[in-house]
UniProtKB/TrEMBL annotation:
Keyword set, alphabetical order: Metal-binding, Mitochondrion, Oxidoreductase, Potassium, Transit peptide
Swiss-Prot/TrEMBL GO biological process terms: branched-chain amino acid catabolic process
Entry superkingdom: Eukaryota
Organism of this sequence: Buddleja alternifolia
Predominant place of localization: mitochondrion
Any GO MF annotation of the entry: metal ion binding
Domain Dehydrogenase E1 component as annotated: residue spans: 133-430
Protein name, per record: 3-methyl-2-oxobutanoate dehydrogenase (2-methylpropanoyl-transferring)
Family: Belongs to the BCKDHA family.
Location(s) in or outside the cell: Mitochondrion matrix
């Protein structure tokens, strides 16, 4: 983001009088993104002028003409025509420091599910109900799959406990042509797009129905059909991929964007900073959605950075940015809905920092009670539950009832348990699948490895699982 020249300030001020949400060039005390503007008129009336995308700069030949005419640049100008934009001079010796007040957080629903504003993107009734159903289904799936791992039926699992609103609401605001580059806590995005519970179970059990043919860790989903790139455990590597894909969409003039999800820990990597700068400079249509849940495994955000969270990092790189309540489904939906329109129609990146809390363990390999107080976890689970908050709003709209709640949870539990039972009984991929899908014709080194593996299994059959077809 930028502080614009005085000649641009009037334009900016005029834009601020509209219902503009992603503000630019204002003081830290007012950069709190309090509004979402009228999305229906966005593509026509409220499109940002392209001249505001970069700082203005005087052409070099004009500057040199001035030097030849006057012998020197007028002192009255008090500016430097530096590459990248004109820089004003000042006699004040002052270092930049952090803002005195934290960037505010956009919110629609309070803790009790009551609207505090009508400044949000309206959602169709059918979509609202589907959002809630998918949030409950995701919550149920996480609970049962976590238990399955504890029973030794799968080797690993990671939940989205406390982050259901970010998953489902962001997915609902996207289109199916938009490409998703997830981290590992976005199963709800795939659920929204139509990935079935059986598909999830097949992947976690690594059977023949798994798209990855058992070659990925459990909960590392991927689906070409749903434009959902396969999850990788390596932190933040998906961010530059999403930016590069967005730039490709721009070059192809496709009416779509990419979205990438990552945690606060991901912003401490070089990949995040390199990708953010590339997206800003190349004006790639990408939504960068940070789930700031307070903890990068056992490292709290206070031990990661001294800046005001993630939103100011977008500001520093010249990217439109906003901070939203990640436990408020309406706020997340509104922010992503608007971000998508900005990314595509203006061809620009948008950063969203969603404040939430990882109410569960980082994964089944983690015990968060070792580094977080139990009372803190319980408070977030109960008082800030995004699923319960959205349900209260639906009930206030007469779109939900106690009977519907009971039926939904019973049905979701039965469907998940059935999917697990089926997945356990499906045959595993054959041994040969380890060596396929990379080369059209396997090279000699892969053929040698396969031969060596088969000979080893024949010599030591007791060391290998009997349920893997040879």
């Amino acid at each position: 983001m930028a502080v614009y020249l005085s000649k641009s300030r009037k334009v900016l001020a005029d834009l601020k009088t509209t219902k503009m949400g992603f503000q630019l060039g204002v003081s830290s005390r007012t950069s709190h993104f309090p509004h979402i503007y009228n999305h229906s008129s966005y593509l026509s009336e409220n499109s940002w002028p392209t001249t505001l995308r970069r700082f203005e700069s005087v052409k070099a030949d004009k500057q040199f003409d001035s030097l030849r005419t006057n012998g020197a640049a007028p002192h009255a100008d008090q500016v430097l025509n530096f590459p990248g934009g004109i820089v004003k001079f000042t006699s004040e010796l002052k270092f930049l420091s952090g803002p005195e007040e934290r960037i505010h957080c956009y919110r629609v629903l309070d803790d009790n599910g009551q609207p505090i504003s009508n400044n949000f993107v309206e959602i169709d009734k059918e979509i609202s109900v589907k959002m809630y159903k998918d949030m409950v289904t995701l919550q149920t799936m996480d609970t049962i799959f976590y238990e399955a791992q504890r029973q030794g039926r799968i080797s690993f699992y990671v939940t989205a406990c406390g982050e259901e609103a970010i998953n489902i609401a962001s997915a609902a605001a996207l289109k199916t042509d938009d490409l998703v580059f997830p981290q590992y806590r976005e199963a709800g995005v795939l659920l929204w797009r139509g990935f079935s519970l059986q598909d999830f179970a097949n992947q976690c059990f690594g059977n023949k129905g798994d798209n990855g043919k058992g070659r990925q860790m459990p909960a590392h989903y991927g689906s070409n059909k749903h434009n959902y790139f396969t999850v990788a455990s390596t932190v933040a590597t998906q961010i530059p991929h999403a930016v590069g894909a967005a730039y490709s969409l721009k070059m192809e003039r496709r009416y779509a964007c990419t979205i990438t999800y990552f945690g606060d820990g991901g912003t401490s990597t070089g990949d995040f900073h390199a990708a953010l700068n590339f997206a800003a400079v190349m004006e790639a249509p990408v939504i960068l959605l940070c789930r700031n849940n307070g903890w990068a495994i056992s490292t709290p955000v206070n031990d990661q950075f001294r800046s005001d969270g993630i939103v100011v990092r977008g500001y520093a790189y010249g990217v439109h940015s906003i901070r939203v309540d990640g436990n408020d489904a309406l706020a997340v939906f509104s922010a992503v809905n608007l971000a998508r329109k900005m990314a595509i129609s203006e061809s620009r990146p948008v950063l969203i920092e969603a404040l939430t809390y990882r109410a569960g363990h980082h994964s089944t390999s983690d015990d968060s009670s070792k580094y977080r107080p139990a009372e803190e976890i319980e408070w977030w689970k109960v008082a800030q539950d995004p699923v319960a908050r959205f349900r209260k709003w639906l009930e206030g709209q007469n779109l939900w009832s106690t009977q519907a709640e009971t039926e939904l949870r019973d049905s979701a539990r039965k469907e998940v348990l059935h999917a697990i039972q089926v997945a356990e009984n499906i045959e595993k991929p054959t041994l040969k699948e380890i060596f396929t899908d990379v080369y059209d014709v396997p090279p000699s080194n892969l053929r040698d490895q396969e031969k060596s593996l088969r000979e080893t299994i024949q010599r030591h059959p007791q060391e290998y699982p009997p349920y893997v077809p040879l």
